[in-house]
Specification:
Peroxisomal Thiolase, Chain A, domain 1; nine-stranded mixed beta sheet; single chain; two-stranded antiparallel sheet; 2 domains; 11 helices; alpha+beta; 32% helix
């Protein structure tokens, strides 16, 4: 069953951080064979943020985490664990989470990265919740952060128009004081038979760096876009309906759907199959593009800041990504320390 038992777990703070540089579709028209109309029609994306030279994933993660801690009213030394979901770490090792822990001077906290495609955000939230619910931890900082611009082939118009950089964070706690939301349930899945749909094939054990891997552009994100679209539309609607039912809810009882911000056509198509009106989802894909493991954190933070999420409402956060992995987490909104927003 996806319902969490044990100690109740609450979201007590959120934060985001975005690089200053904005790359528009008009900018991309000068770089590759594409148009603003083509990008908007097929994805819904208009702009995305791009990290500056030398600006690392750990830098974005640290800034978002610091804001989330301030939002929660916690100090770094209150943290028991830091989890960072990312597919674009500064280095394979050391991990991003350890660097964030060091920058924050969170002296009591453990640290670990989680790499599970764009679904890493939901996986990390579920793991953090399980750890708190079981009594292992009391306060956990969960961050999703990406600098995917460093992993993109900027001559490949099928991928370079999609991705953006950014970071978002949530603080989870067993303490309900000032809580924004309570976490109710989570469901996680994977279909590893489709692992080839989204990949970064070059540079490690399967394809060690060589002149051939460089020549073949294996050191960049590879994606079979049409097949990803078909997979998500086949897998996600039934999974989300079943996940709601196992949580004692009907899809109609979900007040807000926070989707991974990958493609507007995917969001609309899945909602249509669930017979859910598009007015019940929050979209900021047009501003930020696909920020992978950061995207649902950015969307939740902005939806809350704009006053769209009200006490007692049910919010379903869902994502999908390389693996192919997919999953969701269901929250119930509380009063919150920022309820006046």
């Amino acid at each position: 069953m996806p319902l969490f038992s044990g100690k109740p777990v609450f979201v007590t703070g959120t934060g985001i951080h975005l690089p200053k540089r904005v790359l528009t579709n008009q900018d991309l028209e000068k770089m590759v064979d594409t148009t603003d109309e083509w990008i908007v029609e097929r994805t819904g994306i208009r702009t995305r943020h791009i990290a500056a030279p030398g600006e690392l994933t750990s830098d974005l993660a640290y800034a978002a985490g610091l804001e989330a801690l301030g939002s929660a009213g916690l100090k770094p030394e209150n943290l028991d664990m830091i989890l960072v979901a990312t597919n674009s770490p500064d280095t394979l090792f050391p991990g991003v989470a350890a660097k964030v822990q060091g920058k924050l001077e969170a002296t009591r906290a453990g640290a670990a990265d989680l790499q599970s495609g764009c679904t890493g955000c939901v996986y990390a939230l579920a793991i953090a919740t399980a750890g708190i619910a079981s009594g292992l931890w009391e306060n956990v900082l969960v961050v999703g952060a990406e600098v995917l611009s460093s992993l993109i082939n900027w001559q490949d118009r099928n991928t370079c128009v999609l991705f953006g950089d950014g970071a978002g964070a949530m603080v989870l706690s067993s303490n309900p004081a000032g809580a924004l939301a309570r976490i109710l349930s989570s469901d996680l899945r994977s279909d590893g038979t489709r692992h080839d749909l989204i990949s970064f094939p070059g540079g490690l054990v399967e394809n060690p760096t060589s002149p051939n891997t460089l020549e073949e552009n294996l050191h960049s994100v590879q994606m079979k876009g049409n097949e990803v679209f078909k997979f998500v539309n086949q897998a996600l609607p039934g999974f989300l309906r079943e996940s709601c039912e196992k949580s004692g809810l009907e899809p109609a009882q979900i007040d807000w759907w926070i989707f991974h911000q990958a493609n507007l056509r995917i969001i609309d198509s899945v909602l249509k199959r669930l017979q859910v009106d598009s007015s019940k989802t929050f979209v900021n894909l047009d501003k930020y593009g696909n920020t992978s493991a950061a995207s649902v954190f950015l969307a939740f933070h902005e939806a809350y800041a704009e006053g769209k999420l009200a006490p007692s409402q049910k919010v379903l956060i869902t994502s999908f990504g390389a693996g192919m992995t997919y999953g969701d987490i269901i929250l119930e909104m509380q009063g919150g320390r920022h309820a006046e927003k």
